[in-house]
Amino acid sequence: MDKERLIVIGNGMAGVATVEQVLTKRQDMEITIFGNEPHVNYNRVLLSSVLAGEMLEEEIILNSREWYEKNGITLHSGVSVSKIDVKEKTLIASNSVKFYFDKLLIATGSVPFIPPVKGIWVEQASPPLNPLPQGEGRLKDSSKNNSIPTLPLPLKGRELIEGVFTFRTLDDTTAMLQWAKKSRKAIVVGGGLLGIEAAVGLVSQGVDVTIVHLMDRLMEMQLDLQGAEILRKELSRMGIHTLLSHCAEEVIVHDNRLEGIRFNNGRAYEADMIVIAAGIRPNTVLAKDAGIKTNKGIIVNDYMETDIKNIFSVGECVEHRGKLYGIVAPLMEQARAAADAIAGNYSVQYEGSVTATRLKVAGIPLVSMGNFKGGTGCEEIVYSDPAVSVYKKLVVSGGRLVGSILLGDIDGYNRYSELLQNKEDISLQRKTLLTGETRAIKSVASMPDSTTICGCKGITKGTIVKAIEEYGLTSLKEVSEKTTACTSCKGCAPQIEQILQDTLGGEYVRQDIQKVFCDCIPMTWEDIRKNVITASLKSVSEVLRVLGNGVGCSSCKPGINYMLQEIFPDNYKKEEDALVENDRFNANIQKDGTFSVVPRMYGGVTTPDQLRRIADVADKYEVPMVKITGGQRIDLLGIKGELLPSVWADLGYPSGHAYTKAVRTVKTCVGETLCRYGVQDSIALGIRMEKLYQGIPCPGKIKMAVSGCPRNCSETTIKDIGVVGIQTGWEIYVGGNGGVKVRIADLLTVVDTIEEVIDITGIFLQHYRENARWMERTSQFVERVGIDHIKEVVIADSLGIADRLRKRINEVVSAYKDPWAAAMAGSRS
């Protein structure tokens, strides 16, 4: 008997999740999948991590090509379906080939909504009447265009003008990354989750980003006004600007170049990159053309079957009981019901989902559940602390919890979710719903198997327990690989750890996968360091051969190289392929492949002769840009790689180390030397610290600053090491960070003299060098080990190691060699 033929239109998360479920129920189906993208199935939720540079494309793959082959699935990637014939049970692919099916699953997902903006499409792109003048940020415009259509324009067969992007697919993300390399200002149209993720990703790529949103608040589908305002302020701290109640009207193109965008309030803003993230619409065209019943989406029953027998649909293209769902968890629930029906079992029904969004927005945890907006007959219980970006709101109606918002602190999420799902009477719990008593959540062991543990993927406790028992899983990583739980926001990791503990009992030993340095060497940073010292391993290749897979990768090799530098400062084998590109060139690579050269100027102090030398180099090598850096240095930008040795030779300056994981410059104010408020000589101390610690390799970059008084003009308290002059001496701060997530430094101690400053900062620096993990900035290190522990080690010397640390940092200082001078000496020899 011939196998029953199942064809799936759509190779995304919902369609493939359904196929995965079908495979657990039947092995006798001939399965064919069409995907109009040229990729295998990937996790669309993690595209923002790829855009931000936190993950590589290959890291978000859910099902490899080997998986399709292993399960006998025919994948047509990069091939769409152009027509379905429901009577003949056939479809025509974009390559004009006809295919027959017995059962069909439509999982076409959604398409980006493109607002009716004049000039956004290639065929519309003619220069406007009033182009944005060069360098102007906003422009009053009295001209109005009354011919703008009022309906969304279809994407099919149309092309957006150069510089305008949607953010929906992996190809979109790749294109945005490439364009961001040559962009200065970006505007993101849309302030929902997708728009915010796009903005955060582009800021991480060094682009100046503004979000413009039609509504009066960000993420209006998940947040009320109070919560949205806290989110807006947090985005502002990250450097992301926000314009609310703005409706895009026309893109501005001049000389075939995107220059900006104009809004219907008459204002225009400069931009060389525009991202449209204004929402999505169900992709129903194929189904509708085939005569399948549609409304806002493809209409399905509780078995995810359309009005045509044996034709099913799941995902964002679906309308079930009048509702559309655009988050992952409901789509996974739909997949389970559809798979049962496709397999011939019509006993499992999908009855809809309580909308519960759990995610991270710009690094801030957010939960939005049920009717969080409230309304007639509803009461609100609210806790708000905007200073620390925490907002909690519970909506109660008829003695039951009907909705909630948790922003910044999601403790209580499981409890509130349970109350919402079970419609439990909370009348006697009103006083303690938002207090610490809500933290006494039921243990995972007492939860029923039907409890959803991974909200992102809709994975239940029962599924995880079954996988642990069936496959002998013993770690969080193995559970993730087998069930796909904890592969998105990773907020469910603690609960999965509890399930492992409850299921395996004494056989389970918790493995903190965050401490495992790399899969190439599946050991903690600390254990690798012990082994390197014990076995006296003195090259990256030797470390990999003895402790790892013998090959390594671009992520772990630089870290191991640092470790060897720290342990054997002048006695290890340097291998070029273990260095990141910046360290190989001793310069900071730019977006266009050229380099930035920053000569060191101790304390920002220079001389006319030094300035003339910089000017001569800039003229001789036609340097495109000369800029004062935030660290009071002069930056020569746009230098070709082959010219670097000549540039260093002509400059005659030491390296400013603006390109590497090392101690960089010391920012200073003028202090008591010139400032009427200065109480200490910040310039002298800054120069001394910079000369002493210059270029010392570290797990992460080190930025320092010295202020001559508590007015803190050199931003001392957001530096890795900061020193503030006071009337009686100096305050020493550590663990500050002025990056995307600002952290105020902790006060380490107060001392009387400059000599004490040098001594204590040196001891702290060496303690950090020896004990921080690779890529761990001092801000993260201080948070991990605690400022009290650091005070005990560095100030109280409770471990009795201060003398050793002091001696060690002096040895490192003595072993320092200027890399530019070393490179020149090497080229001469």
Please tally the helical runs, counting DSSP H or I stretches of 4 or more residues.
25
Strand order of the largest sheet: 3-2-1-7-19
Q: Tell me which oligomeric state these chains represent.
A: single chain
Straight-line distance between termini: 78 Å
Query: Averaging pLDDT over every residue, what do you get?
Result: 86
Helical coverage, percent range: 25-40%
Write down the Rg: 30 Å
Care to count the β-strands? 38
What are the segments in which pLDDT stays under 50 over at least 5 consecutive residues? 125-155, 437-441
Broad shape: globular
Give the helix/strand class.
Answer: alpha/beta
Task: Summarize the biggest pleated sheet.
Answer: 5 strands, parallel
- Strand residue content: 15-25%
Describe the structure.
- The chain is α/β, with parallel strands linked by helices and 829 residues long.
- The protein has 25 helices and 38 strands.
- The termini are far apart.
Keywords:
alpha/beta, five-stranded parallel sheet, globular, 829 residues
Task: Give the helices and strands, then pairings.
Elements: E1 4-9, H1 13-25, E2 29-35, H2 47-51, H3 65-70, E3 74-77, E4 81-85, E5 90-93, E6 98-100, E7 103-106, E8 110-112, E9 164-166, H4 170-180, E10 185-189, H5 193-204, E11 208-213, H6 225-237, E12 241-244, E13 248-254, E14 257-263, E15 268-270, E16 273-276, E17 280-282, H7 285-289, E18 298-300, E19 311-313, E20 318-320, H8 328-342, E21 356-361, E22 364-370, E23 379-385, E24 390-397, E25 400-407, H9 413-422, E26 452-454, E27 459-460, H10 461-471, H11 476-483, H12 493-504, E28 516-518, E29 521-524, H13 525-535, H14 540-547, H15 556-567, H16 581-585, E30 588-589, E31 595-597, H17 608-620, E32 625-628, E33 634-639, H18 644-651, E34 663-668, H19 671-674, H20 682-693, E35 702-707, E36 721-726, E37 729-734, E38 746-751, H21 754-771, H22 778-785, H23 787-794, H24 802-815, H25 819-828
Helix pairs in contact: 1-8, 10-12, 21-24
